[in-house]
Amino acid sequence: MTATKLFLLFLFSTVVPAVAEEIFFRGFFMRCMRVFRASLAVLMSALVYALMYFSVEGFPLYFVTGLLIGMAYMATNSLTTVIGISFLCKSFHFLEETVGVFMPDGYAPLVQGGLTVCVLLSAAGLPYLKENMRAFFDNDDEQAIPSAYFWTVPTILFVVLAVAIQLLIRPS
């Protein structure tokens, strides 16, 4: 594989999806859902995000990723921040897949190193988790439209459409 092809593969599998997904999920979908509650907006965007990548094995990972990115967006109100987070996640996945194909012996150490970094970052962030979660849920607007109004026909159709796309469009 040439360097140009590898660069184009990187561009269209990391940069473009990171920007497009975050503009849609955080910039559009979550802003629309904010008329309900912030916590419901984060949960629904994470659910639809995970459904977009639907696989039995990957659903929990994508759901948690969607939750974390959604909370980061609510905390910062910055698309640039969440695009950066999404880009870093997709870049690591690209590196992991590339190493798995071109250097199979380096795959296991790379995954173990990535997991170690994630555990260390999580441990470093634990003291701040309680404070951040309290700030996130305390700022949930009490004047928002009741959550019962959330389950309207457009919302249900959107979730059904996300599942249908996954069931009908299977990679070969």
Q: Main traits of this protein?
A:
172 residues; mainly alpha; globular
Quick structural gist:
By secondary structure, the chain is mainly alpha-helical. It is built from 6 helices and no strands. Helices cover 81% and strands 0% of the residues.
Describe the structure.
The protein is mainly alpha-helical and 172 residues long. Helix content is 81%, strand content 0%. The protein has 6 helices and no strands. α1 runs antiparallel to α2 (38-52).
Give me the secondary-structure topology.
Layout: H1 3-33, H2 38-52, H3 59-76, H4 79-102, H5 104-138, H6 153-168
Helix pairs in contact: 1-2, 1-4, 2-3, 3-4, 4-5
Order of helices and strands: HHHHHH
State which percent range the strand residues make up.
under 5%
- Sheet with most strands: none
N/C terminus separation: 22 Å
Question: Radius of gyration in whole Å, from Cα?
Answer: 18 Å
Large-scale geometry: globular
What is the tally of beta strands?
0
Mean pLDDT over the full residue set: 76
Oligomer: single chain
Return residue spans where pLDDT drops below 50 for at least 5 consecutive residues: none
**What is the overall number of helices?**
6
What structural class do helix, strand and pairing data support?
A: mainly alpha
Helix content: over 70%
